Every structure is written in C-alpha cells, then in structure tokens.
Amino acid sequence: MAATRPVRPRVPRQSARARTLTDTAYARLRDSIVTLRLAPGAPLTEVELCQRLGISRTPVRAALQRLQQEGLVSATRADGTGRMGVAPLTADDMRELFLMVGALDGVAARLAAELRPEKRAEIVRTGVALNTQLRQLSTTELSDIRAAQDLDLRFHRCYERAAAGPRLLAKLTALHARRERYVRVYTEALVHTHSVSESLDEHGAILAAIAAGDADAAERHAVFNYRNALDRYRRIVAIHGERGNWY
C-alpha cells in the first residue's frame, strides 16, 4: 500500500501586491513625515490617507503600524490611546533620541577604528572631504541649510556603513530619520547662534581616532559629538519651542 503524503496546512499569506502596496504607503508617508510635509502633531486618519495615497485601507493601516514602531507616528493621548498623528517634536523625545543615536554611532566609530589600516584610511579620506565641504559652506553663512544637513549625515554614515553590521545599521537608519525632523526644524536657528567650527572640530577628532586605530577614543569622540549637538539643540528648542505637542 502506497504511503500517504501528509497534508500540509494552508497558511494564509499576504499577497505580493498587498506587500507592495504596504511598502508604497509606508515609504510615501515616511518621506512626508521626515521632510515635514506632514507637520509634527498633524492628525492622521485612515480614510483621509487612503484618499491621499490612492491606496486601500489595509495597506495604509499596516504602514501606520510600522511608522508607529519607528516613533514617527504616535497616539494623541499620553496614555497611548486616541487618534493617530505625526509624532510631535519635544525636548524629552529629542534628548532620548540624540543619546540613543550617539551611543550607537559611538559603537560604529569603535568598529571603524578596529578595521584594517587601508579601510580606515579610506574612511578618513571620505570624512575629511565631507568635512572640508561643510567648512566651505560655513564660510558662506550656511546659505544652503539642507546641503549642510546632508553633509553632516553623510559624514557619520561614512564610517557607520563601512563598519556596522546589518542590525546596527538598521537601528541607526531608523534613528537618523527621526533625528532629521529636529535637524530640519531647528538647524537654521542653530547656525546663527553657535560656530559650526565646533562640530567640525569634533568630526576631526573622530577621524583622528579612527586613523590611529584607537577604538576607545573613536567611540568617546562620537558620543561627545552627539552630546554636544544635543546641548546646542536644547538651547534652541528652549527659545523657539516644541512642535506639535498634544499634552
């Protein structure tokens, strides 16, 4: 008697089309939030978003859940209930965010300092070139604020991408997106109240430690850079206020 094959249970799975629609909704909403086209504190309703994106409700709901996990969307009540909205920009959130990014960026800098000498030299060349461009922008009073923001992020990414593994890099990517909202809102005020040379000197210290293969110093200087950035932004937020705080 022929052996019978075991019957495999049917496992429901999301169709390729549904996954694509979710990814599309997620990418478009995320970009709108990070670039401030959806302002901090703006309410988000599924019906309105479906009409705006031309996408059905299920993918939009899944996209909102992903954005909530990243901290870009949150409930409009302190107890976690209420309608959904774009996460506000607050002093407390900024403090936690910058400390987290700084700690993980420090790990990436440490790993970069532990790479082979030729790889470290490549990172340093890239970092010096980016720092030079940023210094040149600073001499024109940073008329192109967006370019300055991009150069600063690219500086940190040059050693993060060279040394960080996929898990660390994924965490940093998500946190940098959240940090970018603060940078976009407050940087223009920031550059008129402190010397950009402070940040450039801190960048130089990170590169010097990586070049020397000094992992402890590389991590320390990277953390120091973000702590100083936090102090500078906190002073600006104290003057110009939080954005979109519901509580």
Q: Helical content, roughly?
A: 55-70%
Strand content: under 5%
Largest sheet: 3 strands, antiparallel
Structural class, from secondary structure content? mainly alpha
- Could you report the average pLDDT, rounded to the nearest whole number? 86
Determine the N-to-C terminus distance: 72 Å
User: In terms of per-residue confidence, which ranges show pLDDT below 50 for 5 or more consecutive residues?
Assistant: none
Q: What is the CATH level 1 assignment of the largest domain?
A: Mainly Alpha
Form type: globular
What is the subunit arrangement here? Answer: single chain
List the helices and strands in order: HEHHEEHHHHHH
- CATH level-4 homologous superfamily of the largest domain: GntR ligand-binding domain-like
At CATH level 2, the architecture of the largest domain is: Up-down Bundle
Tally of helical segments? 9
Radius of gyration of CA atoms, rounded to a whole number: 22 Å
CATH topology name of the largest domain, in short, is Four Helix Bundle (Hemerythrin (Met), subunit A)
List the strand order in the largest sheet: 1-3-2
DSSP, total strands:
3
- Number of domain modules: 2
Describe this structure in words.
70% of the residues lie in helices and 3% in strands. The model has no long low-confidence stretch (mean pLDDT 86). The chain is mainly α. A hairpin with an 8-residue loop joins strand 2 and strand 3. It has a 3-stranded antiparallel sheet.
Keywords:
247 residues, mainly alpha, Arc Repressor Mutant, subunit A, Four Helix Bundle (Hemerythrin (Met), subunit A), three-stranded antiparallel beta sheet, 9 helices, 70% helix
